[in-house]
Amino acid sequence: MAEDLQEFLTGLDAEIRAMGDWGAVADYIPELGRVAPDQFGIAVALPDGRVLTAGKAAQPFSIQSVSKVFALACVLGRIGEQLWLRVGREPSGDRFDSILLLEQEKGRPRNPFINAGALVVTDELLTGRTPRQALSEVLSFVRAAAEDDDIHIDKAVARSEAENGHRNTALAHYLRSFGNLNNPPEHTTGTYFHQCAIEMSCIQLARAGRSIAGLPNAPQMLSPRKARRINALMLTCGQYDGSGNFAFRVGLPAKSGVGGGLLIIAPGRASIAIWSPGLDGWGNSKMGTLAAEKLAEFTGWSVFG
Length: 305
Ligand code: GLU
Known about the structure:
- This protein has 305 residues and is an alpha+beta fold.
- It has helices at 2-19, 30-33, 67-79, 100-104, 115-125, 131-146, 155-164, 166-177, 185-196, 202-208, 210-213, 224-237, 243-249, 286-299; strands spanning 41-45, 51-55, 61-62, 152-153, 198-200, 254-256, 261-266, 270-275.
- Strands 2-1-8-7-6 form a 5-stranded antiparallel β-sheet, with helices on both faces.
- The two termini are 18 Å apart.
- Bound molecules: glutamic acid.
């Protein structure tokens, strides 16, 4: 099986590179706009401890919103169910950085993966901690989950987003006006921008997802119940307003980032990371989604059978 899968991944890398239909990199964060879109990497962590790879699987990239999964895991570990008083669990059907629903729903974001919801999660992470301590909690979680200390924050990306992140700044102030932000908005956004600027390779990210996939060789970072809930949120909300399309095409819980990364969970079977920086209209990796679709078809790993 692993041999067949390795052969498939090698072929997939060649196929994706031959297609050349990469999508456009996110340029609203200028530092991300400098990344060449024509790149592809994939890593698949298996229950026996092996990590199969193809393409640029060892190349670090900006994980961006994939970090929201790890921040959520930290906060659920700390306050559990209380989080749902501040943020919902429904798909938004709106852009990742939309402010529209926030007004209608009086400052309680739809879910923890749209930017407004992620800001609330980061704000919760700041309770009783300085921004530096909160950031170090997320980073430590990711390093422990990947069993790899060579994971760092790209300060140039964090700065670039801080200088240009007017929508997130607006969201934070708006949340504060509804009383759903406990810290000074600049502390919350500053922590959030740094959390999003964590750099990881596909190999590191696939390893970090093993606990969410419940793989037997994974470090014990999450109870099975929490992992199940994070998977449910990834499936329904992980690709923003493209979540339905992703579930239809791939059938697996996943979280995307505007750096072109994807963490995909095949519960009990594998933790998969794909990176291709060109995005589709929803802000999700274009070739990454196609690769995920082909992988799910080849393996039969869709949660829908
Ligand atoms: N740091 C990005 C933002 O807040 C994350 C968005 C994403 O990766 O989808 O705009």
